[in-house]
Automatic annotation (TrEMBL):
<dbReference type="InterPro" id="IPR037272">
    <property type="entry name" value="SNS_sf"/>
</dbReference>
<feature type="region of interest" description="Disordered">
    <location>
        <begin position="512"/>
        <end position="551"/>
    </location>
</feature>
<keyword id="KW-0812">Transmembrane</keyword>
<keyword id="KW-0813">Transport</keyword>
<dbReference type="InterPro" id="IPR000175">
    <property type="entry name" value="Na/ntran_symport"/>
</dbReference>
<feature type="transmembrane region" description="Helical">
    <location>
        <begin position="159"/>
        <end position="180"/>
    </location>
</feature>
<keyword id="KW-0472">Membrane</keyword>
<feature type="transmembrane region" description="Helical">
    <location>
        <begin position="442"/>
        <end position="464"/>
    </location>
</feature>
<dbReference type="Pfam" id="PF00209">
    <property type="entry name" value="SNF"/>
</dbReference>
<keyword id="KW-1133">Transmembrane helix</keyword>
<feature type="transmembrane region" description="Helical">
    <location>
        <begin position="400"/>
        <end position="421"/>
    </location>
</feature>
<feature type="transmembrane region" description="Helical">
    <location>
        <begin position="367"/>
        <end position="394"/>
    </location>
</feature>
<feature type="transmembrane region" description="Helical">
    <location>
        <begin position="476"/>
        <end position="502"/>
    </location>
</feature>
<feature type="transmembrane region" description="Helical">
    <location>
        <begin position="271"/>
        <end position="296"/>
    </location>
</feature>
<feature type="transmembrane region" description="Helical">
    <location>
        <begin position="192"/>
        <end position="215"/>
    </location>
</feature>
<feature type="transmembrane region" description="Helical">
    <location>
        <begin position="235"/>
        <end position="259"/>
    </location>
</feature>
<protein>
    <submittedName>
        <fullName>Sodium-dependent transporter</fullName>
    </submittedName>
</protein>
């Protein structure tokens, strides 16, 4: 289906999409997206379970051979075709538009439940002052959330007032930041919150390392189990951690790159973001295992008996540590405050993907696009998740959207780019014109061979685990997992195809010149690189002809 011919007014009017005013603002925003809850509560346990200090080796290999190469892909697509995921993918080549809508729908699902975790963390920041959970943090978390568990889970709209109020506050803050726009909202909030997050977390780590038993925990975290490197599962875990941690294939980095100035050094920026994210993960590991070492010593048990991850680490294990540690209130405020900041900057980036897509689709200015997205998302999130079914719903949706949404979308997009569209030469040449780190055969091999294999193995392993395991996921009723897990994941794919078939309105940004009033870059010519002489920006590079000998 071809795009509608724009009206004269639409053809001459530039797309007003907003922009980062500099590379620094973009880097802070990108780090804000990448550094999220998974860095703090997932990485330490994954590293510990997969070889401890030896895990750093496959982790770095995964960063260099999959994480950063995929980050460059997102940057190149968003930057060259200057649009939200659906518009950029459509401009790349028409039939791939559904990949962009798939990424948008993934962000819709994540956004509505992510706010719940931020709300919990905000409440626990206050609870830390007087260690309100007492001697039994597990029981307190259960009474605080009133969460249904296991076979008792059902659709229930029994609201939890403290969580409801905090969820409302989270969404009010999101609306305010997003209305302010790319520069005044997204980048300025990131440039405040990310330094504050780092300062708070460094203080937290320093305090945790002073606790009795801290070095026992650090020894457990960093002690290498070199034999683990022979296990394929360890390498899959390393790639999985890097993949989810860097926010690749969500459409986030693609969207942020579309707001960059045209002569930005994309590859240099990608290296900064990639290594900053991994540095924070290792810092989180030091802080978490220092605290777990104290916990183990206080209870007279081995470190492996107190290691946990995710919600169990954040809202049960850490409160127990805070309750027993000297100066526990400070540790609690710093830890949960860090979760709030990391989660909020990530949620900002997730919601921005949806806002940019709606704005591009209907040619809307910033405020109408923001309200059209954030108000329905916020109302749905507030109506559904601060309830007794909220935790179970979050658990199921998060598991399936990660395994079958993000991994599936990344696998399909990578295969499409490499083997169907054959777009890597075009993306490589766009990145190389102003990039300080030049890409060549090594990058191509990583994207074309390593990434599809790892993603395919991860998808198969997840499927076997979910289908072949004993009982149902988390002991929830089968119908609950089917409706909110399998059917939800399938609906993302079907919905993305349907949305890609809908015509773009004449007033959309699809055929408008970009924000600078410049001509749009042409679609990819399969297997063909770019050429140009004395071009001012990489966007002026055009598919190379036979005479150029480029491929």
């Amino acid at each position: 289906m071809s795009a509608p011919t724009p009206s004269a007014g639409a053809a001459t009017q530039s797309a007003d999409r907003g922009a980062f005013r500099g590379r620094t603002a973009f880097i802070f925003a990108a780090i804000g997206s990448a550094v999220g809850l998974g860095n703090i509560w997932r990485f330490p346990a994954v590293a510990y379970d997969n070889g401890g200090g030896a895990f750093i080796l496959p982790y770095l290999v995964a960063l260099l051979t999959a994480g950063i190469p995929l980050l460059f892909i997102d940057y190149a697509i968003g930057h060259r075709w200057r649009g939200s995921p659906p518009m950029a993918w459509r401009r790349l080549t028409r039939w791939t538009e559904f990949i962009g809508w798939w990424q948008v729908l993934i962000c819709v699902v994540i956004a509505v439940y992510y706010a719940l975790i931020i709300a919990w963390a905000a409440n626990y920041t206050v609870f830390s002052v007087d260690t309100r959970w007492g001697d039994d943090p597990g029981a307190f978390f259960g009474s605080f959330t009133r969460a249904l568990e296991g076979a008792d889970v059902t659709v229930a709209f029994d609201y939890v007032p403290p969580v409801l109020i905090t969820c409302i506050l989270v969404w009010v803050a999101i609306v305010l930041v997003m209305v302010l726009g790319v520069h005044n909202g997204i980048s300025k909030s990131a440039m405040i919150f990310i330094p504050l997050l780092v300062i708070m977390f460094v203080i937290l780590v320093a305090r945790a390392m002073m606790l009795p038993g801290a070095f026992t925990g650090l020894n457990a975290f960093f002690r290498p189990n070199w034999g683990a490197l022979l296990s394929p599962g360890v390498w899959v875990a390393a790639y999985g951690q890097i993949f989810f941690s860097l926010s690749v294939a969500f459409g986030i980095m693609l969207t942020y790159a579309s707001y960059l100035k045209k002569n930005t050094d994309l590859t240099g920026s990608g290296l900064v973001v990639g290594f900053a994210n991994s540095s924070f993960e290792i810092l989180a590991g030091i802080g978490v295992f220092s605290a777990l070492g104290f916990m183990a010593q206080a209870q007279g048990v081995a470190v492996d008996e107190v290691v946990s991850s995710g919600i169990g680490l954040a809202f049960i294990a850490f409160p127990a540590i805070i309750g027993e540690a000297p100066g526990g209130a400070l540790i609690g405020v710093l830890f949960f405050g860090s979760l709030v900041l990391a989660g909020f900057t990530s949620l900002v980036s997730i919601v921005e993907v949806v806002i940019s897509a709606i704005g591009d689709k209907f040619g809307l200015s910033r405020v109408p696009a923001t309200l059209l997205v954030t108000v329905p998302l916020g109302l749905f999130s507030i109506a559904v998740f601060p309830t007794t079914m909220g935790l179970a719903l979050l658990d199921v949706m998060d598991n399936w959207v990660n395994q079958y949404g993000i991994v599936g979308a990344a696998l399909v997009s990578t295969v499409a780019l490499v083997y169907l569209v054959r777009a890597l030469p075009t993306l490589r040449d766009h990145l190389n014109l102003r990039g300080s780190f030049r890409l060549g055969t090594g990058w191509t091999v990583c994207v074309a061979v390593i990434v599809p294999i790892v993603l395919g193995v991860s998808l198969i392993a997840s499927t076997i685990d979910l289908i072949g395991g004993e009982g149902t996921y988390s002991g929830y009723p089968l119908w609950f997992n089917i409706v909110f897990g399998w059917l939800m994941a399938l609906s993302l794919v079907v919905g993305s195809v349907v949305l890609s078939l809908l015509p773009w309105p004449r007033d959309s940004n699809l055929n408008r010149p970009d924000s600078d009033g410049d001509e749009l870059a042409p679609p990819v010519v399969p297997g063909t690189g770019l050429s140009g002489h004395d071009v001012a920006t990489p966007h002026q590079l055009r598919p190379a002809g036979p005479q150029d000998g480029r491929s």
